[in-house]
Write a structure and sequence with these properties.
24% helix; 5 helices; four-stranded antiparallel beta sheet; alpha+beta; single chain
Amino acid sequence: VYVRKKITSRMSSSSRRTVKICFDEQPPRVWYKDQAHEPKFFEITVALKDERGHRVRGIDVPLDMALVYDNGGDVKRQSILKISKDTIPKINKTGIAEMKIRIDSVSKNHDNHDFMVKLSTDRTFAPPGIDITSALSQPITVRSKRNRGKRKKGAIDNESLQAVASWCKFASGFMQDMSRRQICPVCEYVAPNHAQSCKLNVCLKGYSTIKLLLEGKFQDQPAKKQRSQDSMRFPPTPVRFPPADLKRNRSPALALDQIHNYIPRPSSNNADDELFADVPPLLLRAPSLTKREKS
């Protein structure tokens, strides 16, 4: 009886088949979850394959998805892994499952760890005679948006421009040598005539036009009008009264006394003073101020 049990156990273990879940389409290596004009879910494609790499058909395998870190640690908050509404986490009888998932947290919030999607069979699913192994995806770096730095206005890569200019000069010289032949190799017209649709002639004319435009870019610009010196002369700045001293005493008589003290008088030596040339002399006399008696 013991020998029979041992033989049957060996036969049952040898008759079991091992299949594995494989990623046919891996998730993106870097994914931006909040980028505008881009899908909010990324797609993955998994298949059920045997040891030889052939697809296994005819079995419906419900899947269980989980997130792990790139160092093998478990993600405590599994709620950040979300599945699209039109996705069923199951490998159908064709042996393939296409799913759309989303990771709703950035790697920066998890000590800059990358995420990995772990796919395994549902715990309640136990097909007879088949062992299904789980699969891990490649690491996923989740970020919020692409870092678009501010471009500096007027910033030009001089080396790239010189390379393009040298190539244009070489190409134009090569095309000019071809156009000097007795018969044009493109339109087959006798030189110096060319057909209207001759691409060689069109390229040469375009290059010469662009060259003339670039050479005369700064020459054709009108010169900026310079302001005359007379228009740049401004009248002298009038004397400003300090507002702090005037606000301290609210008496009108004392305030006028202060104003009168701050008005400068024209000097007798300089008769042509610009500041007081048009000011009548009566305004510069000390005003006679009398306080009103209280009734």
